[in-house]
From TrEMBL:
InterPro entries: PTS_IIA_lac/cel (IPR003188), PTS_IIA_lac/cel_sf (IPR036542). It comes from Enterococcus canintestini. Keywords: Magnesium, Metal-binding, Phosphotransferase system, Sugar transport, Transferase, Transport. GO terms for molecular function: metal ion binding; transferase activity. This is PTS mannose transporter subunit IIA. It comes from the Bacteria. The modification Phosphohistidine is found at residue 78. Transmembrane segments: none annotated. Mg(2+) binds at residue 81. The active site is at 78 (tele-phosphohistidine intermediate). CDD domains: PTS_IIA_lac.
Length: 110
């Protein structure tokens, strides 16, 4: 992988990871307001961004597996941190939304 391609993959991880995290947080806020349709859409958007980030990561891993060494820089580590944080936030957001949804259902049943 050329230096330019490597940089593009790293920036993809940062961008898509950031988008996923933002969408997941917006999903929680929507659920908090009772807008579960928007919450579900925001989670879907977050998952789409995570899929794109995984594509960038997979490209880097494939190159490494083929013997084309990728220099690990602080920027590379930073991009992986963004991705892992985005995955964690998205997973937790799904749980928080589920709790809000159950609370709304319980309130509606009364």
């Amino acid at each position: 992988m050329g230096e330019q391609q490597n940089l593009e993959a790293i920036m993809g991880l940062i961008m898509y990871g950031g988008n996923a995290k933002s969408d997941a947080m917006e999903a929680i806020q929507a659920a908090k307001k009772g807008d579960f349709e928007l919450a579900d859409q925001k989670i879907a958007d977050a998952e789409n961004s995570l899929t794109e980030a995984h594509h960038s990561q997979t490209n880097m891993l494939t190159q490494e597996a083929q013997g084309k060494h990728v220099d690990v820089t602080l920027l590379t580590v930073h991009s992986q941190d963004h991705l892992m944080t985005a995955i964690a936030v998205t997973d937790l957001a799904k749980e928080v939304i589920d709790v809000y949804r159950k609370m709304a259902e319980m309130t509606a049943d009364k």
